[in-house]
Structures are given as structure tokens and as C-alpha cells.
Amino acid sequence: MMRNLLWPTTRALVVSFVVVTVSQADVMDVDGRSALVLQSDVAQLVIDLAGGSIKDFHLLDHGLNPLQWDSVDFDSTLAETPRKARSMGHFLCLDRWGPASEAEIENGMGWHGEASRVLWKVEQDVVQGEDNLEAVMSANLEMAGLSVRRTIRMSRSAAVFEVTEAVTNNRPLGRIYNMVQHPTIGPPFLDETTVVDANAGKGFMQGGSLPNPEQPSVVWPQGLKEGVTPVDLRHLTDDAAPAVVSFVIDAEYGWTTAVNAGQGLLIGYVWQTEEYAWFDAWRHVIDDKPFARGLEFGTSGLHQPFPILVQKGKIFDRQLFVYIDAGETVTRSYLNFLTSVEGDFTGVRNVTFDGVNLTVEPLTGDAIVVDASRLSK
Fold first, then answer.
1. Alpha-carbon 281 to chain mean position
2. Angle at 63 between CA 120 and CA 193, to 5 degrees
3. Other C-beta atoms within 10 Å of 364: how many?
4. CA 231: distance to chain centroid?
5. By CB distance 3.0 to 4.6 Å, which of 178, 262, 279, 343 could disulfide with 300?
């Protein structure tokens, strides 16, 4: 299979000696639901088939899953049909981010599109290579007229995997759409000490008055509560306001990390800004305690139905939607990784990827290097 052009094709020679242990990957029952499970020598990845969510990613020697979040906590009726498709952990928003129009709602379209509301099919059983594990799954979005084919490639020796998603327009006419990755961290990884960092730039608070919701504007990591009071979005304690702030990214690659130094764990994402131009920070509190944080990145930064997106067009000179022609296939990718950290870790200054290594540069102390070279075929 041809690799996505997201990652540089020139790779430095890396000499390493790895003790290969038995890796497991299969479709199995997890918490009463069918899931695709990939287990390397160092980490386990669980993808729910009823909605396609990445519901668990943890180090084998640590056990803590940062993506501990489930939409059933916001809609108790979902528990009445426990195997029904629903969003968990990291889910995909496709063909939209946010609400549908009134007419679309009447026709059965929900929030964030169909991708997390349909059953996903395993197209390729897990192939266990010398350096990595690979599986392919897909979903058909009938109302949207789109289908998505997801390839997951997971390193055997490092806690890192690559997701490549190819979206195809199955209709005879072109259309606009949006595609947003919705990773969501929750307790116990998320608490008052958890710190979120990103290389985001200029941003604005969702819920601002139309036609110019981007006024007032902010710069990461600042948000404004009620449009006035400055808030440091790196932290979340007992007040989630402002709940959603969207930012553009000016670098070639976007990245975001969340770290709980007391738990000794960091989770991070890296993507190409050309494919995902927006970083959307969502925060939620229950009973004065941090309950959810969305580390979202995608093709839109305005949480509104398509008629409003079309009318607005751009914010900060960035498109609020993308177009896919009849029969066209568009591919986007990202990396997700975990690493252990020391108890005095205070945050991340930068994350870089050279096609071989992911390098996490902390605010203080030595850099952390995650070997991503084994993701290539």
C-alpha cells in the first residue's frame, strides 16, 4: 500500500536491537462491545466497532488510559442499548463538526455526523509484521453519501501509531463537508494537575455573536471568560468557561499534548496543518471537577451548521469547510503517541517529527524521543 505523503519519505538509518515478543491483535468482546484490539510489545490499542472510536490506548507497564471518556455520561438513554453505536474516547466527526440544520435534524442527522453512529467493518485482519501491526476498517455514511477507509499502523516497539483515513464521495455530485478528529481525555488521567499544550496561534471563543464570532480574538493559550476575563487554557480546575475555543495553526505541522506528571504519563498528537488547519479546545466540568477535555483538530473552527459556515466562509483567512468532488477520495493522517514522564514535568514547549523520531521538548529538562521509524512498511 502506498504511504500517505504526510510523512517525509527520506528516512535516516536507525540501528537498533529489539527483543520481539508475541503481539496480539483480534476482534473481541470488550466491556460487552465488539472491538478491534491491537497489542504490541509495549502498548495496547482498542477500537470500538460500533462507532469506530479509539476507546483505549495505554502502556502495558502503566495501564492508565487517557482516552477514558464515553458519551453515555452525557446521554443516559444510550445505556439502554449497550451495543448501539456511540462516541467514546477519540471519535471521528464526519461529515460535520457540531450541529445539523433544522431540516437535517428532521431527517435524522445528529451532531458531528454519522461516523460515530454507524457500525464499522474490519476490512483487513491485523497483519503482524516484523516492525509493526497493521489493520484496515471502514464505515459507510449513507445520509452523507460518503465512505471512510481507515488504516491503522502501530509500532511493535514504541507506543505510537499512525491513522490514515481515506474519505470517498460516493455520490454523482460534489459537496462540502468537514472532518474533525475528536480525542477526549477524562479522569483519572484528567484532573486539576493535567496540563494541555499545543502549537496553536490566533483563536476565538465559540458562541460569539454572528456574523463575526471571532471577535474578540485571543492567542493560545489564552481564552476569555464571558469575553472579558483572561483564562489560561493549559489548565482546568472547577470552571470550564470558556467551554470551546478554536485556534489556527501557522506551522507546517500541528501538535497537541496532555500530561499528568503525577501519573507519569503524556499523550500527544501530530498532524499536517495542510490537512487539518484548526485546533479546537473543548473543556467540561462536573461537580466542580474536570470531567472532559477535547484535544480536537480538523478542517473547521466554527461549531455551526453548514448554512452558517457557507455564509461566513473563512475566519482568520482559514476555510471553515472543505469540498470533495463526485467520486473523489481525499486522504488525511495523524500520529498518536504515549510516553512516560517524570513527576516534575511541567509541560511541552514543542513537538517535532522528522520522519523517524518524534521529539518532545519539555519546558524544562531533557527532550523525550519516541521512535516512530517502525511505522513504515
1. 11
2. 105
3. 9
4. 23
5. 178
Burial class (CB in 10 A: 0-12, 13-18, 19+), 262: exposed
SS3 116: helix
Q: Which fold has domain 24-375?
A: Beta-galactosidase; Chain A, domain 5 (2.70.98)
The pLDDT score that the predictor gives to residue 2 is 34
- Report how far apart, in Å, the C-alpha atoms of 212 and of each of 216, 293, 311 are: 9, 26, 11
pLDDT at residue 82, rounded to an integer: 78
Classify 280 as helix, strand or coil: strand
| Spatial separation of the C-alpha atoms in residues 119 and 165, rounded to whole Å | 16
> Are 94 and 113 within 8 A, CB to CB?
yes
- Tell me how far apart the alpha carbons of residues 202 and 246 are, in angstroms, rounded to a whole number: 8
pLDDT digits (tens, 9 = 90+) for 317-374: 999 999 999 999 999 999 999 999 999 999 999 999 999 999 999 999 999 999 999 8
Distance CA 170, CA 225 (A): 43
Q: What are phi and psi of 31, to 5 degrees?
A: 55, 35
Backbone angles phi, psi at 180, to 5 degrees: -130, 130
Q: Note the pLDDT of residue 79.
A: 76
Q: Could you say which residues of the chain have pLDDT below 50?
A: 1-25
d(CA 369, CA 360): 6
Specify the pLDDT at position 77: 80
pLDDT in tens, 201-220: 999 999 999 999 999 999 99
Please name which of 160, 363, 180, 340 lies closest in space to residue 275, comparing C-alpha atoms: 180
Measured in whole angstroms, the distance separating CA 333 from the mean position of its chain's CA atoms is: 10
3-state secondary structure of 311: helix
Q: DSSP code of 68?
A: -
**Cβ 196 vs Cβ 233: under 8 Å:** yes
Residue 17: predicted pLDDT: 28
In terms of residues, how long is the chain?
Answer: 377
CB 310 within 8 A of CB 154: no
Q: So what's the pLDDT on residue 377?
A: 64
Q: Closest Cα partner for 155 from 16, 332, 295?
A: 16
